Amino acid sequence: MTIRVLLADDQTLVREAFAMLVESARDMEVVGQAATGRQAVELARTGRADLVVMDIRMPDLDGIEATRLIAADDDLAGVRVLVLTTYDTDEYIVDALRAGASGFLVKDTRPAELLDAIRTVAAGESLLSPGPTARLIERFLRSPSAPATGGPECLSEREREVLALVARGLNNTEIAEVLGLSPLTAKTHVSRIMGKLAARDRAQLVIVAYESGIVTPGNI
C-alpha cells in the first residue's frame, strides 16, 4: 500500500527536499505541500493524506494548532501527524503530542530515518524512544507551565506497570520480556490502557504517565 504524505513547512527549500526524499521511496507519494498550518488542515481534508509531516513553527496557524484541528476532525480520523522540531530550541513538542501528534523527529535526522519514521507512524505506531524523546518530554512536563492532570485511577496495578514501560519507550515485545508476558498479552494490555484513558496512541500514553506521576522526571 502506498503511503500518501502531506508535507507542511513554511520553508520552500525544506519542503522540496522532503518531497524529493519521499518520492524516492517506492511505498510513498507526496499528495500535497503546505506553507502554513491552515493550508495543512485544508489539504489534509481534500488530499486524502495518510500522514502529515508537520513543522511546528509556521505562519497563519502553527503546527500545534493544525495538529489539534486534524486530530479533532472525525473525517480525518485516519490521518496521522509526525512533527518535526529543532529539538534544542523548540519548546512546544509536548503540546504537539497533547494535540494529537503521533511522534516527532529532529529536522537534521538522516533521510533513511525519516522514511522509516513515516512508515512507523503511518502503520499506527508512535515514534517514541527511551533516549532523547523521553528526556525531552520529562524536561517540559516538569516545567511550571506544564498543566497537571489527575492520575489514571481506572488502571489495574499491572496496567500501571505496562504504562510506565510505555513511557520509557519500550515496544510490546520489550514490555513482554520485562514483565514475563507474551507479546500478545502485552499488546492487549496497551490496547486496554489506551481505551480506558481515551488515548489516541502511545504518544499520549507517555504524556499521561508523566503528568500522573507514574513516571517521574529523572526516572528513565
Identify the CATH architecture of the largest domain.
3-Layer(aba) Sandwich
Q: What Rg is obtained from the alpha carbons, in whole angstroms?
A: 17 Å
Low-confidence stretches: 144-150
CATH topology of the largest domain: Rossmann fold
Could you describe the largest sheet, including whether it forms a barrel? 5 strands, parallel
The string of secondary-structure elements, in order, is: EHEHEHEHEHHHHHH
Report the CATH superfamily of the largest domain.
Response regulator
Brief digest:
The chain is 48% helix and 12% strand. By secondary structure, it is an alpha/beta fold.
What's the structural blueprint in terms of helices and strands?
Elements: E1 3-8, H1 12-23, E2 28-34, H2 37-46, E3 51-55, H3 63-72, E4 80-85, H4 93-99, E5 104-106, H5 111-122, H6 132-141, H7 157-167, H8 172-179, H9 183-197, H10 202-212
Parallel strand pairs: 1-2, 1-3, 3-4, 4-5
Helix pairs in contact: 2-3, 3-4, 6-10, 7-9, 7-10, 8-9
3D architecture notes:
There is one protein chain. With 220 residues, this protein is α/β, with parallel strands linked by helices. It folds into 2 domains: 125 residues, 3-Layer(aba) Sandwich (Rossmann fold); 72 residues, Orthogonal Bundle (Arc Repressor Mutant, subunit A). It has 10 helices and 5 strands. Helix 2 runs parallel beside helix 3 and helix 3 packs parallel to helix 4. The protein is globular. It comes from Streptomyces purpurascens.
